[in-house]
Amino acid sequence: MADRILLNSRQMATFVARGFLRFDAVVPDDINQQFLDEVGRPPQPGDNVKKVYAKLLSGSGIPTVAAGTPLDETYPGSCAVSRLLELPLVRGAIESLVGPNPRFDHHFLHVTFPPEFYAARGVPNVSQHTHQDSTIDPRRAFDLQIMYYPHAVTPEMGGTRFVPGTHLRIVSEAAVGRYQNIRGQQHVVCPAGTLLFLHHGIWHGGGVNKSNELRYMFKIRINPTVRQERLWDTSDLGNDHHEQRPIFLLKEAPDPNSVHTILTTPEPWFEADTGRLEYLNRIRLWRYVLGDERFDADYWLTRIENEPIASAAS
Amino acid sequence: MKRQKVLVLYLADSALDSSVIAWSQYDGTGRDEHMAGDSERPPYPSGLAALRDGWRLIQMSQLQPHAPGAEFTTAYLKYEFLFEQWVDGDG
User: Fold this and answer.
1) Which residue among A13, A189, A204, A305 is least enclosed by CB atoms within 10 Å?
2) Domains in chain A: boundaries
3) In CATH terms, is domain A9-223 a member of 2.60.120.560?
4) What value of ipTM does the predicted structure carry?
5) What is the pTM of this model?
């Protein structure tokens, strides 16, 4: 088995709280180039974009694979994606988030075309509506989505747009399409070989490409086959992990690397009241991955779970 | 011919003067093409600021009691305020 670098607790808490981890330029250039070679020659503008897309997909060297296939059996050993999945960082992140022997769900090559492809057909070149993938999904367990950027993405290329911290919202796919802009949204402008590891629930959409180049993003969805409990490197969890700390009236800023701080740091778009519900839901997800229902951060769950049964007379 | 412009502001709480956390715009004149991800700064800091700039408030979301068993579920943005302007289509 290849080496793997498991996530640490700070990274895991960040994933629980914000729904993503980003690693810039971690895929070597030879794999990036091999991937682009396997995709094949870029099409020329002039034909219907859907037809161009279909031609690109059918001509690519990326295999079609049945949903539910063990991830280890999904890609031929020599292909670029297989080599990518063998990188120690990638193996470690997958194992930390969804555990050993995960299942392949699906993959897709997302291609965002330059304006000339749309101009040739007289159709508008617009960004993709914000959405959550799949459908309503109220599970505590989560799937992992990997987004791979095999070439550099410039601001003109638009990049994938996503909204940190939206992953725990139970919504119905494109029902959130009404939200054009949300404070704190990020656009993936990145060097070649960048990877995003995403909770399946994060709100996202493809940005409009105003450059002269095609933009590629390859996405793989992966399901766990084991309970997602203590799968990361937990050796850095301190003995004080369960201890409460002063809240509200503070005389110094909390440690930004503390799991408690990470779980209770708001996103710019948080509403005043439901932002607190986000804290509760993050803490509940941390309990789930920690396998410990006693955990709390800044007393948010302890307070509302306090229903004493002892009699004052006893 | 008049055309409608629509501004949707999502606020931090149910008060019209609370801060904008998300926004969408649709321009019936066709002069401006708004789309997802097209701006990083909200057009107004609050709903009240939009009102003072001439936008007409036509709807705000209702405050709903929390469904038993789903009190902690988060879903869609709660505080949606819908504004309109009527402008000349050719001016």
Assistant:
1) A305
2) 9-223, 238-304
3) no
4) 0.97
5) 0.96
